Amino acid sequence: MAQSKKGKLNYRCPSCFIRDIDIDMFYDEEKKEYYCLRCCYHGNEEEVERLNSMLKFRYKWMEKRVIDFGEDNAPAKVKEYAGEEEK
Fold first, then answer.
1. Which of 19, 22, 51, 69 is the most buried (most CB within 10 A)?
2. Are 28 and 35 spatial neighbours (Cβ–Cβ below 8 Å)?
């Protein structure tokens, strides 16, 4: 999701992102915390960063393509995704 303005990086709401909803959070300077308008999640920057980094496991192979699943208990063989020219 694109940011509405330049400046400090917007964080995704971890609660919404778990459900595959990409929503940016807003920052409340008085309370010094981030909040989501959609699900009412709120938390400080450290908590939001921790939860967002935990979600990266979902997309860690997004830029890779499995080329061979191998034998039982053998790791899968992958290669970097080169883009549309692979077709």
1. 51
2. yes
> Quick check: helix, strand or coil at residue 78?
strand
Position 7 scores a pLDDT of: 46
In angstroms, the Cα distances linking 66 to 7, 38, 70 are 37, 36, 10
In the chain, the amino acid numbered 10 is N
d(CA 15, CA 41): 7
Residue type, 11: Y
Q: Which residue has the higher pLDDT, 4 or 79?
A: 79
Are the C-beta atoms of residues 26 and 13 closer than 8 Å to each other? no
As a whole number of angstroms, the distance between CA 33 and CA 48 comes to: 9
Q: What is the pLDDT of residues 37-67, one digit of tens each?
A: 999 899 999 999 888 887 777 777 778 888 8
